[in-house]
C-alpha cells in the first residue's frame, strides 16, 4: 500500500488511475461517525486518565496492568476502568504506534465518557492513516533513491 500511495492526491495509484482514500472509506469500514467535533490530541497523559498514571510514561502493558489491578479492588470504579479500556482500544485499534511509550492520544476526551459520540472519529482515524502513509511513502522513496 505504501509504494502505491500518492501523498499529493491522498490516493492510491493503480496503473494510471488514482483510487481516492477518504473519510467515508474509514466510516464504512470501521463504522465510525463522520459527524461531530474534531478530535484533539493531547501531547501527554492528562485529565482523569493521565492522573491514573501519575506522570509516568504510559505503555500498553501499563494500561493492561492498571486495568487488572483496578478490577476487584477498593479503587474499582466503572468509569475509570471504562476510560482505561477505551484508551487501550485507541492505542491498539485506531491509533497504533511503533513506539513503546504512548503519547499524543485524546486523553482529555475520555474525561466525559458520555460525550464520546459527539466527535468525528472517522475523520481522526483518516487523518492518522493519511499522515502515516505519507511519512512511510516518503521514507520508502528515500530508500529507493539511495539504491
Quaternary structure type:
single chain
Largest sheet descriptor? 3 strands, antiparallel
Label the overall shape: elongated
The sequence of SSEs as H and E is EEEHHHHH
Structural Rg: 18 Å
Strand order of the largest sheet: 1-2-3
Give average pLDDT, whole number.
Answer: 87
In the predicted model, the low-confidence regions spanning at least 5 consecutive residues are none
- Strand percentage lies at 5-15%
Number of contiguous helices: 5
How far apart lie the N and C ends? 20 Å
Notes on the structure:
The chain starts with a strand and ends with a helix. It has helices at residues 23-30, 47-52, 60-70, 78-94, 121-146, and strands at 5-6, 11-14, 17-20. It has 147 residues and is mostly helical. The chain is 46% helix and 7% strand. α1 packs across α5 and α3 packs antiparallel against α4. The protein has two domains: 1-38 and 119-147, no CATH class; 40-116. Strands 1-2-3 form a three-stranded antiparallel sheet.
Give keywords:
single chain; 147 residues; mainly alpha; 2 domains; three-stranded antiparallel beta sheet; 46% helix; elongated
Write the layout of secondary structure elements.
Layout: E1 5-6, E2 11-14, E3 17-20, H1 23-30, H2 47-52, H3 60-70, H4 78-94, H5 121-146
Antiparallel strand pairs: 1-2, 2-3
Amino acid at each position: 500500500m505504501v509504494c502505491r500511495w500518492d501523498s499529493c492526491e491522498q490516493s492510491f495509484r493503480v496503473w494510471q488511475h488514482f483510487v481516492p482514500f477518504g473519510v467515508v472509506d474509514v466510516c464504512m469500514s470501521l463504522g465510525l461517525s463522520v459527524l461531530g467535533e474534531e478530535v484533539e490530541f493531547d501531547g501527554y497523559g492528562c485529565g482523569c486518565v493521565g492522573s491514573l498514571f501519575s506522570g509516568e510514561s504510559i505503555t500498553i502493558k501499563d494500561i493492561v496492568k492498571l486495568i487488572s489491578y483496578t478490577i476487584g479492588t477498593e479503587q474499582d470504579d466503572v468509569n475509570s476502568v471504562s476510560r482505561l479500556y477505551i484508551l487501550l482500544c485507541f492505542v491498539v485499534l485506531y491509533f497504533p504506534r511503533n513506539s513503546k511509550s504512548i503519547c499524543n492520544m485524546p486523553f482529555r476526551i475520555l474525561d466525559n465518557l458520555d460525550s464520546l459520540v459527539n466527535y468525528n472519529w472517522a475523520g481522526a482515524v483518516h487523518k492518522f492513516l493519511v499522515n502515516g502513509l505519507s511519512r512511510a511513502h516518503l521514507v520508502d522513496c528515500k530508500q529507493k533513491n539511495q539504491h
